[in-house]
């Protein structure tokens, strides 16, 4: 019966045939709900800019499918209730929406809402939903209406524990409400909820519910706290790794370089399993075989480069912040001077207009023409002042960016020298390791060859039975190590150089060319407007 009532409510108003959202429907709705009077006439004359629409109702239109609303990018409230919508879709571009009403439709699944990160109020009242899901990205959710659906499992409520701001929940007239004590279950597990089914949750109700489910609630709270702590740690780690990437030292964090060396060195992985090599292995930084439990620290050279890289990154970041601050100060100073010139021009224009109004009454065309000539000269002087001010700013920005580029190049050169020194030491360390590894493995192979009784060997140890194969494996291992070290150094230098080139190019493009072009266009448009006013003799004040 309830479903029939809901379905009937959808048909009270609107069209008889299913429809889709198109420009005509949107335009009609915007005009009907938009401003009235003169503002409405102006909107009708100029047309609707859908990107400017903040609130819109498309209820009672027999809409079958959501679509065609991509231009409503700034909308904050959208009502699509009382239609025949079967699927949530077509909302990806509505990232600013805060209130979405999809009640009284035929929706069977919650989906495709992940882009609506600002959503606070979601109504899905009177639909066909059976599972509460796919709302993980809607962290700001405060009001959720799910009444009159097909939700039959009380454990669906646990999904809502993740929403820290959830204040009001409507869940009435779902199959789960037939379970005895369902309200206590919600009170207990949604401890921050304030209203349930339009009723304020009294403290004594919540306390009674907590007593009943205390053990389970405490366990969940503890697990959730642990999970949130892990998220915080993961976030910190991600920020740290991102900072290392920007500092171009992400490949030498901890044992990363040495992990890469031995990951690609299959022969080396076999050779270091020899028990007599264990002591040598402990002195060289890379993950050890299973029979050695500890991990050694990265080499001193890499550690020093890592610390130097962090310091140099902070210096470069500070220099860039200082640059952008100087650029902003220069632009603000230029803007102030431009506004002063415009204000001065406005005063001149106002005075000339007053004189013209007085003169027209007494009909002195010669004097009027002289005043108009003065105004033409004032317009030209304004253009000259504004363009001169702009050229001055361009020169100033060019000088600032050039000095910045010079300073940054010196910083990059210093860091490049540190990189070169570090990797030279790493190569020396790798060479020493390979020499000692060769000495130990060849000695073991000779002893094995001279043994009177043949020793049992596993397949991995068979490499020691053939000296030529052993020498080849040692050479391959050394070449792999050198190649990985060279590649890492090349990546650091290449990425550092590319970053500086991109930064300088971006500064020139955005702060000089694009900004300058837009500014010149603005100046010329403003001056053209003044000249048009002059020639038409309308002279409106700006």
UniProtKB/TrEMBL annotation:
**What SMART domains does the record point to?**
LRR_SD22 (SM00365)
What name does UniProt use for this protein? Dynein regulatory complex subunit 3
Give the record's family classification.
Belongs to the DRC3 family.
Q: State where the protein is found.
A: Cytoplasm, Cytoskeleton, Flagellum axoneme
Which cellular component terms (GO) are annotated to the entry? cilium
Which superkingdom, per the lineage? Eukaryota
What keywords sit in the KW lines?
Cell projection, Cilium, Coiled coil, Cytoplasm, Cytoskeleton, Flagellum, Leucine-rich repeat, Repeat
Work out whether the entry's keyword set contains Hydrolase: no
Sections of the chain in a coiled coil: 210-237, 335-362
- What Pfam families does the database record attribute to this sequence? LRR_4, LRR_9
What species is this protein from?
Dibothriocephalus latus
Chief site of localization = cytoplasm
């Amino acid at each position: 019966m309830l479903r029939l009532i809901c379905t009937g409510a959808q048909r009270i108003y609107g069209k008889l045939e299913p429809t889709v959202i198109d420009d005509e429907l949107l335009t009609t709705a915007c005009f009907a709900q938009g401003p009235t009077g003169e503002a409405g006439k102006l909107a009708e004359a100029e047309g609707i800019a859908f990107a400017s629409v903040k609130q819109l109702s498309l209820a009672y239109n027999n809409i079958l499918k959501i679509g065609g609303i991509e231009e409503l990018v700034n909308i904050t409230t959208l009502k699509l209730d009382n239609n025949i919508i079967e699927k949530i879709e077509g909302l990806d571009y509505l990232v600013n929406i805060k209130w979405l009403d999809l009640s009284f439709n035929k929706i069977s699944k919650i989906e495709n809402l992940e882009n609506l990160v600002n959503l606070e109020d979601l109504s899905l009242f009177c639909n066909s939903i059976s599972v509460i899901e796919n709302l993980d990205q809607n962290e700001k959710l405060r009001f959720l209406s799910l009444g009159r659906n097909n939700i039959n499992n009380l454990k669906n409520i646990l999904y809502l524990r993740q929403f820290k701001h959830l204040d009001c929940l409507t869940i009435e007239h779902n199959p789960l409400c037939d379970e005895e004590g369902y309200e206590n279950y919600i009170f207990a597990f949604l401890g921050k909820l304030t209203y349930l089914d339009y009723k304020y949750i009294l403290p004594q109700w919540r306390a009674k519910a907590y007593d009943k489910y205390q053990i389970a609630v405490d366990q969940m709270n503890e697990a959730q706290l642990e999970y949130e702590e892990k998220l915080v740690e993961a976030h910190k780690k991600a920020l740290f790794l991102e900072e290392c990437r920007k500092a171009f030292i992400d490949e030498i964090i901890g044992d990363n370089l040495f992990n890469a060396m031995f990951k690609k060195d299959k022969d080396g992985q076999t050779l270091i399993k020899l028990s007599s090599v264990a002591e040598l292995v402990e002195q060289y930084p890379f993950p050890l075989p299973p029979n050695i439990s500890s991990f050694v620290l990265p080499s001193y050279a890499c550690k020093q480069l890592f610390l130097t890289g962090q310091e140099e990154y902070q210096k470069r970041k500070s220099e860039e912040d200082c640059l952008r601050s100087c650029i902003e100060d220069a632009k603000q100073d230029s803007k102030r001077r431009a506004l002063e010139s415009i204000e001065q021009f406005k005063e001149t224009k106002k005075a000339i207009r007053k004189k013209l109004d007085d003169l027209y009454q007494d009909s002195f065309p010669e004097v009027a023409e002289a005043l108009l000539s003065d105004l033409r000269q004032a317009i030209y002087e304004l253009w000259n002042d504004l363009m001169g001010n702009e050229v001055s700013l361009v020169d100033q920005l060019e000088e600032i960016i050039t000095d910045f580029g010079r300073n940054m190049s010196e910083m990059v050169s210093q860091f490049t020298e540190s990189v070169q020194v570090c990797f030279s030491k790493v190569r020396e360390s790798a060479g020493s390791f390979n020499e000692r590894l060769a000495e130990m493995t060849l000695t073991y192979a000779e002893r094995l060859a001279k043994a009177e009784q043949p020793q049992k060997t596993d397949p991995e140890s068979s490499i020691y039975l053939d000296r030529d194969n052993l020498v080849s494996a040692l050479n391959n291992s050394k070449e792999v190590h050198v190649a990985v070290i060279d590649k890492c150094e090349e990546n650091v230098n290449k990425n550092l150089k590319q970053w500086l080139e991109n930064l300088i190019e971006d500064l020139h493009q955005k702060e000089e060319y694009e900004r300058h072009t837009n500014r010149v266009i603005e100046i010329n448009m403003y001056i053209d407007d003044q000249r048009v006013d002059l020639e038409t003799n309308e002279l409106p004040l700006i």
